[in-house]
Write a structure and sequence with these properties.
The complex is a heterodimer. By secondary structure, chain A is of the alpha/beta class. Helices cover 35% and strands 16% of the residues of chain A. Chain A has a domain of 104 residues. Chain A has a six-stranded mixed sheet. In chain A, helix 5 packs parallel to helix 6. Chain A is rod-shaped, with a radius of gyration of 40 Å. By secondary structure, chain B is α/β, with parallel strands linked by helices. The longest helix of chain B has 18 residues. Chain B has three helices and twelve strands; from the N terminus they run ββαββββββαβαβββ. In chain B, helix 2 packs parallel to helix 3. Chain B folds into two domains: 37 residues, no CATH class; 122 residues, Nucleotidyltransferase, domain 5 (2-Layer Sandwich), CATH 3.30.420. Classes of the chains: A alpha/beta, B alpha/beta. At the A-B interface, helix 3, strand 1, helix 6 and strand 6 of A face helix 1, strand 3, helix 3 and strand 11 of B.
Chain lengths: 193, 186
């Protein structure tokens, strides 16, 4: 008999092994809690607070580097030289030399062809007249105020000094002796203010 | 979702707990980020100064002032192998220094003249306007021939602006370039 009882243990159906502890708790939801639940929950909360913090950091960085004045118009064919010891851009008439054309604030103001053909420095009449009219306009709008005489030259790095000198001289004769050359900041040096 | 709990709301009173609408807030932030990224300016445009030295008065309305005979540093870049730095007082040459014209490449299409910048920085000590309370700066005049490329002119002007000196205004001290550059068109 005893051997038969012992054998009956092995006649039980094969079951998957599992947790045996705390199975006897009568309340089902308590048993489920204390036994570790019925499985891993598939719902996930997105960590919104760090996400918002991250977004706020980006917004603050972008706002700090935001320029309300917008990008200065530079012709895609003009490759500006680089420099370290530079100053911030200022509001002044922009004289651009693109190819053979001279533009003042986007308005055509003559050509450099005459200078290149003559191979000597020349006063550029169209540029002179346009800059002079801008100067007179400034004086009419701001009576009694000193004229700063600042113009910014936007010149390609491969342009020869002869053309630069001609434009420079013409601007100076038209009442703009304080010329600034537009450059790209190389980033290594300090910006003068 | 996130909320603000300030207690209360018991005994039939209106609840004062508020839910912060996080989703519209995140949408707003994302729009702001997109706008700022699109309008961001990544290239830094700057300027480098040069006064004109041309025959005749630059401003026809003003009389020409008789220039004071200060020491000026003339930077001659007409030579192919070297720069010439000439200290002049009026028309009198005081000193001449030759600097080898050695361009150091900084990338594929960029270069500088560090030797020239070092030499000009040494020479800046000889200038007339070194006192921190002196508002005037020493004058450097750049001479070049007609075939020089613009990028070389800018590299030399950049080297001239390298030396700095102190300027004190109202107890506040700041560093300014030791020289003011005049571009000679003669």
């Amino acid at each position: 008999m005893s051997s038969g009882k012992a054998l009956s243990r092995f006649h039980q159906p094969i079951v998957v092994p599992g947790r045996r502890l705390l199975k006897g708790v009568p309340l089902k939801f308590v048993a489920k809690k204390v036994a570790g639940g019925g499985g891993k929950s598939l719902n996930h909360d997105i960590p919104l607070i760090p996400f918002i913090d991250f977004l706020l950091c980006i917004v603050l960085f972008l706002l700090a580097s935001f320029s309300a004045s917008g990008e200065l118009p530079v012709d895609k064919d003009v490759k500006l030289p680089l420099a370290d010891n530079v100053e911030d851009m200022t509001s002044a008439p922009m004289v651009a030399i693109t190819g053979n054309t001279i533009l003042v604030d986007g308005i055509p103001a003559g050509s450099t062809r005459a200078v290149k053909e003559a191979n000597r420095m020349q006063k550029l009449d169209e540029l002179f007249n346009l800059l002079k009219s801008k100067r007179e306009l400034y004086k009419q709008i701001n009576p009694g105020k000193d004229f700063p005489g600042v113009a910014v030259l936007q010149v390609d790095r491969q342009v020869e000094a002869l053309v630069v000198k001609s434009v420079f001289q013409t601007a100076a004769l038209a009442g703009y002796p304080n010329i600034s050359f537009m450059v790209q900041n190389r980033g290594g040096g300090k910006k003068k203010t | 979702m996130a909320g603000i709990s300030v207690g209360g709301g018991h005994g039939g009173k209106r609840a004062v707990n508020q839910e912060i609408p996080l989703i519209p807030f995140i949408d707003f932030l994302l729009c702001l980020v997109s706008f700022l990224l699109i309008t961001a300016v990544w290239t830094q445009m700057s300027r480098i100064n040069a006064d004109a030295k041309v025959p005749g008065p630059p401003d026809p309305d003003r009389e020409i002032e008789e220039p004071k005979k200060d020491k000026t540093l003339h930077v001659e870049m007409r030579g192919e192998t070297e720069f010439e730095l000439v200290w002049k007082e009026g028309n009198t040459v005081i000193d001449t220094i030759n600097v080898p014209r050695k361009a150091v490449p900084l990338g594929s299409d960029d270069f500088s003249y560090p030797d020239l910048a070092t030499k000009i920085t040494e020479q800046a000590a000889q200038g007339s306007h070194r006192d921190p309370t002196d508002l005037k700066r020493d004058q450097a005049v750049l001479h070049t021939d007609n075939t020089t490329k613009f990028e070389e002119i800018i590299a030399v002007i950049d080297a001239i602006y390298a030396p700095q000196r102190a300027l004190r205004i109202g107890g506040v001290e700041e560093q300014i370039p030791a020289f003011n550059v005049t571009f000679s068109v003669n």
